[in-house]
What we know:
alpha/beta, 13 helices, 8 strands, single chain, two-stranded antiparallel ribbon, 344 residues
Amino acid sequence: MYQIVELFVGIMIGCVIGGWIMFNSLTVPEVSPTWSEPRNFVPSDIEEMLAARSASSGFLHKTGVVPPRYFMQKTFRERQGKFRVWMDNYASNPGFSHPPTPFPHCQVYINHHYKFIWIKGHKVASTSMRGSLGWLCKDGWKVPEDANWDYCSEPLFKNRNVKEEDVRRWWKDYFVFGVVRNPFTRFSSAHEYIQTLMPKKCTKPSFGETCKDPYLHARICKRENCCRESTTVHHVRHLSDQSTCMFDENYRPAVDFIAQVENLDQDLDTILDTINSRKDPSLPKLKRAPDYSHVNARNKTKEEGGSKKHYAVDLFLDNDECVLSLVKQYQKDFLLLGYLENLF
């Protein structure tokens, strides 16, 4: 593991020297992490990396607000214009960069009944949590016929009439939470998912190729003109970083609580207990939905040649440069969400 230790130490030193905290909230600072040859991982190395937990999870001291322009409807055209310019340049030029702003938005849902705000992420078990949190208003994606919509959460990013001062007031008064996931396992899950959605006429990149360029599926869609724009946007947002929509522009926590996919059994109970302890006594308690427990299905094994192999471990063992690439490209998540602290 000495190679990986040197990698992360180099990143931390590089970030300090470069003054990364002064960068725009969506700009990943340039660093030069060290790495000693040879880059030979064994399964236990990869398993340790995939098992790393966030040191920033649990209850936090919320001192900021996710910039409203990242999700308010009135700034949608601005975000769209920036995204299209970025995507055109990204498809035409080599190199990696994140979009200048989240697009189409940070998924901010608000529940005025129970007074909470849920920052709904991608590939972090969000779909499975909806029922436990009272469902999402007008959501038709795999919702059971008997779902109770009486206390559903509204998509704040679709409200054309909301005022920024109201958003900031709600953000201060309501319980704000989100869910994060180990960046390595989230990436492997997102890659596998997006691969299944690429149109047949598009080139499908390998896992190793996507590691070097996380938005490669979107780049291919644009270059080969083989996808709708909505598909291109879908592929980008599922591989965007997690921390941008949970911290303010000064890197202060914009949430009261961060849950982890890897600990969601306990964390979901904590979220529900906190919401129920703050609710109006006349409201029914929120309870965990019965279909929640399948969220960890991605941490699975598969049969190959009569032997069981851990799917994500296999992917990283076959692509040793992937670790270096992903840490550099998702530095904000590794640093702000505290994955460096619990990696070893």
